């Protein structure tokens, strides 16, 4: 029997005992540099799949190849809310090395939003290529449907895979120029051999195993698919090809005196540079080995970026160049504001003084209220936030509140301890914690928030919670666990949690209008309940929910015939 942890009385002592080992900056980048140097000598095909035939695309020989192409936002048909954005970005990176003129994705997205077409395109509605071509000023558009990305749980095994259905369509005639549906499978623990696979090994020094697996799968998928697209002859020399861009900043807080180090792999004897808008513009990279370009920037006292992304550039002597959009994850830079160990009166945190740093445990005493305003960023070294008073996390869609660990080690998470106040969590992203959120004999309302890459997603003990519009994903244990609690969960996505989606013991729960699928072990497991849990009007994927590991008394019918729409915070 799987048990929900209940030893909240020992939390403070467990916090003090907990220590984690992590790589130093110098050793982390030494690994990065050695692996990147190895990239230059390897072939771009994956040796483990060398005997598999390459994917065969349908290519029309009757349609003239376009010159200017727009890669539209991809439709996400997976349980992974990040899949559409991630795969499109990776596809764009490889496509930019072909002899087409392309438009940067953010320019396309802004134009679509301005004309009220973004939701139609991402929702898979039929928007004509002629209309899009005229609006974007292109000769062709590329539509994409991401059909899988990440770990697919199936009985006694799991399969990391990525799948995409894409087509290039003429904006003049409406005819399909190129079309391909392709899926790749990567076994757990597979040794990366291709340049992109090896770059993923570098990613693992800064990213979680789940994120690294997704990156690797998306990279190899898009590399293989783009290789089948017909490449028109260039008016000038074709742009130099980029194979990978890696850096040491993902998942960390870079403070004054630290170095942000970047490595770009591509064709040799070119001019390479990188940017981190708005802080860094076209900083040169030096070619240390043939095709391997290295650079660094030392963080200054005045530098501050709460959520930035690196862009790499590789230009030939003719001025024609390629660029690579960072897929490793956002970079955080700035001198942190150190928070006290104890808050005994009302206290407010804001974006102006972010990022904040909690060196040990942060305790909010009874009678005190801690408020986090939009855009607040808090980083924890190893322990967590214990609230005995009241907690208001008040992020917005444009300026969410973000809580995570300084490095890759887990912190303890948020713990509400005997807080019967009206605690609120709005537009908050919590990651890399032992408990994304945990409550004992407390009340909380959680709205439009994200809990990713935690050991436990949300744990409720003798508490009341309303959870709406939220994402609970990639937990090592259960997504949502409750013991003697009262839950309302609606309009949310619970997916890719390794042990299971919901684990409910002696609890009252109403679970409606959610996407609940692709969780390992079970979707919902109920222990020691007399009556059935109401879990109607949910999307369970394409399978019968009864076959999707519904364990215990759970009423699931009627079910939704299609998933609820859900957008993820970047």
CATH fold naming of the largest domain: Rossmann fold
The radius of gyration is 24 Å
What is the first-to-last residue Cα distance? 37 Å
Share of helix, binned: 10-25%
Named at the architecture level, the CATH assignment of the largest domain is 3-Layer(aba) Sandwich
Describe this structure in words.
By secondary structure, this protein is mainly beta. It has four domains: about 55-235, 3-Layer(aba) Sandwich (Rossmann fold); about 240-335, Immunoglobulin-like (Sandwich), CATH 2.60.40; about 335-455, no CATH class; about 475-570. The chain has eight helices and 46 strands. The strands form seven sheets. It has a ten-stranded parallel sheet with strand order 19-22-25-28-31-34-37-40-43-45, with no helix packed on it. A hairpin with a 3-residue loop joins strand 11 (about 270-275) and strand 12. Helix 2 (about 25-40) packs antiparallel against helix 7, helix 3 (about 85-95) packs across helix 8 and helix 7 packs antiparallel against helix 8. The longest helix is centred in the middle third of the chain and has 18 residues, at about 210-225. The two termini are about 35 Å apart.
Which features would summarize this protein structure in a list?
570 residues; mainly beta; Rossmann fold; Immunoglobulin-like; 4 domains; ten-stranded parallel sheet; nine-stranded parallel sheet; 46 strands; disordered N terminus
């Amino acid at each position: 029997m799987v048990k929900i942890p209940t030893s909240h009385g020992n939390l403070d002592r467990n916090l003090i005992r907990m220590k984690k080992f992590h790589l130093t900056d110098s050793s982390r980048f030494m690994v990065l540099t050695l692996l990147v140097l190895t990239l230059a000598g390897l072939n771009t095909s994956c040796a483990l799949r060398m005997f598999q035939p390459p994917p065969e695309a349908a290519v029309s020989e009757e349609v003239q190849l376009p010159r200017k192409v727009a890669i539209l936002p991809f439709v996400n048909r997976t349980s992974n809310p990040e899949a559409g954005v991630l795969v499109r970005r990776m596809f764009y990176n490889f496509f930019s090395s072909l002899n087409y003129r392309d438009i940067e994705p953010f320019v396309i997205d802004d134009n679509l939003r301005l004309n009220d077409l973004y939701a139609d395109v991402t929702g898979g509605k039929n928007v004509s290529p002629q209309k899009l071509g005229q609006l974007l000023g292109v000769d062709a558009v590329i539509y994409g449907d991401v059909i899988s990305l990440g770990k697919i749980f199936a009985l006694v095994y799991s399969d990391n895979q990525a799948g995409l259905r894409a087509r290039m369509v003429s904006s003049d005639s409406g005819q399909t120029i190129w079309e391909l549906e392709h899926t790749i499978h990567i076994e757990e623990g597979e040794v990366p051999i291709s340049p992109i696979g090896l770059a993923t090994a570098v990613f693992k020094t800064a990213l979680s195993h789940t994120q690294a697996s997704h990156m690797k799968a998306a990279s190899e998928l898009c590399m293989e698919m783009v290789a089948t697209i017909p490449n028109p002859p260039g008016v000038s020399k074709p742009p130099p090809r980029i194979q990978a861009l890696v850096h040491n900043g993902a998942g960390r807080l870079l403070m004054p005196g630290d170095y942000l180090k970047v490595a770009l792999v591509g064709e040799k004897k070119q001019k390479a540079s990188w940017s981190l808008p708005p802080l860094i513009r076209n900083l040169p990279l030096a070619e240390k080995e043939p095709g391997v370009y290295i650079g660094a920037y030392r963080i200054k006292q005045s530098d501050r970026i709460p959520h930035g992304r690196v862009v790499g550039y590789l230009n030939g002597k003719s001025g024609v160049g390629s660029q690579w959009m960072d897929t490793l994850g956002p970079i955080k830079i700035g001198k942190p504001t150190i928070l006290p160990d104890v808050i005994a009166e009302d206290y407010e945190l804001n974006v102006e003084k972010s990022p904040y740093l909690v060196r040990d445990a942060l305790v909010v005493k009874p009678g005190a209220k801690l408020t986090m305003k939009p855009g607040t960023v808090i980083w924890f070294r190893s322990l967590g936030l214990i609230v005995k008073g009241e907690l208001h996390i008040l992020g917005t869609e444009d300026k969410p509140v973000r809580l995570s660990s300084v490095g890759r080690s887990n912190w303890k998470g948020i713990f509400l301890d005997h807080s019967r106040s009206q605690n609120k969590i709005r537009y908050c992203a919590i990651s890399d914690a032992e408990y994304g959120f945990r409550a004992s004999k407390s009340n909380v309302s959680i709205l439009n928030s994200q809990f990713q890459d935690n050991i436990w997603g949300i744990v409720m003990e003798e508490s009341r919670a309303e959870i709406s519009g939220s994402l609970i994903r990639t937990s090592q244990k259960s997504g949502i666990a409750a013991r003697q609690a009262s839950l309302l969960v609606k309009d949310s996505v619970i997916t890719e949690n390794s042990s299971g989606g919901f684990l409910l013991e002696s609890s009252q729960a109403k679970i409606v209008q959610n996407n609940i699928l692709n969780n390992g072990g079970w979707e919902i497991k109920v222990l020691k309940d007399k009556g059935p849990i109401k879990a109607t009007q949910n999307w369970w994927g394409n399978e019968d929910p009864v076959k999707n590991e519904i364990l215990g008394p759970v009423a699931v019918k009627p079910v939704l015939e299609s998933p609820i729409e859900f957008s993820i915070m970047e």
